[in-house]
């Protein structure tokens, strides 16, 4: 066996379309962070599903609890991709990892439906939890009791997904107050100048997210999680006034690469 | 039916992994160029296959004529994705388009094997030819007899794919001479400073590609095709000293969107 062949066994499924560009960013990071022998052929096999039309809005589902669960729908699509990987004429990948680049998708009501449905469909795939992997990387760098700030939308804040993950890891979560959460939310959703409306990011969205970051730094944050996949479009991961801004999509990319059996560039080197 | 529902019928398959990052750039352009109602759900359904390990190197295949034809292999993968779109529990997409973001893949020996195998597998998908679509967009802007320069690797130049497509459209192809083709090839493949080795692009690679561009402008080019998917990493599409640099991946993205039945932002607006 030649050097680098470890990369040739595993595979990754991206459950994308939530939103579509977040999947592209995850896909790009997987390619960038995978350590290969320099050839196209040494990259991990990957199937990227972006079927937004079929996946209900996560925030709305959590709010109304009506209609199909986005987790169940996504599991069915991922399971169909697993089947494509298992065609008899292909070699069966040893290790198949799946990830979904959406913060709100990791609310227990959605995530648990996703993993349960994958089990029921006997899908031979390991789902990788973006928030747990992010917090796990933080544990490698920060001692228990460190203060971890969270920038997120109103919906993600209300769901408590980041607050709970951070607390369970032994860190102290720092959240924005209502006024600042509304400002962060506006920087993402505002129809005239928000990140979902304007590409590249408007100066107003950038300035507002920087101010929110400074607010969390003044509250004592040791690290800050960019807890919405749109935020890194305006605020780069990496050091900011000596505080580390962390993009969970990067943590998910590294964890998917490792779970699929390949080598990933490490936490700090990969991003900064 | 509500406004924008035209986007809800069609779907796109990206035959990616050739190389992996070219697929990501195509995917990103499809999202950026699709005109939607602003919601995730209005984007086209998309399955992006990136199974580099299974797809033989195109240049090597054309040189040696040994081993499986990359076109046949890609057709089998695309057909399996078509099957995933045709599950009875989904709505069948009216219009399914497939594209492969690799210049050399469009050499007749590979492309014809691709389309023939899709037919034999009865895959209900319309393959979209990147080079033909690029030349078609040029015809909308330039009169017959215009001079169209080509920047490409040695392998793509030898295959003649661009030269033939440009001639058939009634334009006059301008190619680099042997010395300049070797310089362009080096800017892409050199293991220490080439585009496949260094990300972001090295100053040396950028400078060399700019010089090659100026060489073609001095030969009288009215437009220049960035005829290798790596070149736009160093040289942006758009106007350069009053000559238009054209990224064929952008033309492919727009054609896939239209073929799938959605609205694309137009040629100039989409890119520049």
Distinctive features:
disordered N terminus, alpha/beta, Rossmann fold, four-stranded parallel sheet, homodimer, five-stranded mixed sheet, 272 residues, 2 domains
Structure description:
Two copies of one chain form a homodimer. Chain A has 272 residues and is of the alpha/beta class. Chain A folds into two domains: 5-129 and 250-271, Rossmann fold; 131-247, Rossmann fold (3-Layer(aba) Sandwich). Chain A is built from eleven helices and nine strands. Chain A has helices spanning 20-33, 58-64, 70-85, 108-120, 130-139, 154-159, 161-168, 178-189, 203-218, 248-259, 267-271; strands at 11-16, 45-50, 96-99, 126-127, 147-151, 172-175, 223-226, 238-240, 243-246. Chain A has a five-stranded mixed beta sheet with strand order 6-5-7-9-8, with helices on both faces. In chain A, helix 1 (20-33) crosses helix 10. The longest helix of chain A has 16 residues, at 70-85. The first copy, chain A, is globular, with a radius of gyration of 18 Å. Chain A starts with 10 loop residues before the first strand and ends with a helix. The A-B interface holds A 8, 17-21, 24, 27-28, 31-32, 38-43, 45-55, 57, 76, 80-81, 83-84, 87, 89-90, 191, 196-197, 199 and B 8, 17-21, 24, 27-28, 31-32, 38-43, 45-55, 57, 76, 80-81, 83-84, 87, 89-90, 191, 196-197, 199. Strand 2 of chain A pairs antiparallel with strand 2 of chain B.
């Amino acid at each position: 066996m030649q050097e680098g062949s470890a990369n040739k066994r595993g595979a990754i499924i991206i459950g994308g379309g939530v939103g579509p560009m977040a999947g592209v960013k995850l896909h790009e990071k997987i390619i960038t962070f995978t350590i290969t022998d320099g050839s196209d052929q040494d990259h991990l096999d990957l199937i990227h599903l972006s079927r937004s039309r079929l996946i209900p809005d996560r925030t709305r589902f959590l709010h109304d609890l009506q209609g199909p669960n986005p987790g169940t729908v996504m599991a069915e699509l991922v399971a169909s991709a697993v089947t494509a990987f298992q065609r008899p004429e292909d070699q069966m990948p040893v290790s198949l990892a799946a990830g979904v680049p959406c913060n709100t998708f990791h609310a227990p009501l959605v995530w648990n439906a996703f993993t349960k449905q994958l089990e029921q469909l006997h899908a031979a795939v390991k789902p990788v939890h973006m928030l747990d992997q992010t917090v796990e990387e933080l544990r490698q760098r920060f001692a228990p009791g460190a203060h971890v700030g969270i920038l997120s939308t109103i919906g993600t804040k209300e769901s408590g997904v980041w607050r709970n993950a951070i607390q369970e890891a032994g860190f102290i979560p720092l959240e924005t107050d209502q006024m600042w959460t509304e400002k962060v939310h506006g920087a993402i959703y505002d129809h005239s100048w928000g990140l979902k409306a304007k590409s590249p990011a408007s100066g107003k969205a950038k300035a507002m997210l920087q101010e929110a970051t400074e607010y969390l730094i003044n509250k004592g944050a040791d690290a800050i999680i960019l807890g919405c996949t749109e935020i890194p479009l305006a605020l780069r991961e990496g050091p900011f006034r000596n505080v580390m801004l962390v993009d969970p999509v990067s943590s998910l990319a590294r964890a998917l690469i490792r779970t699929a059996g390949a080598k990933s560039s490490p936490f700090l080197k990969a991003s900064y």
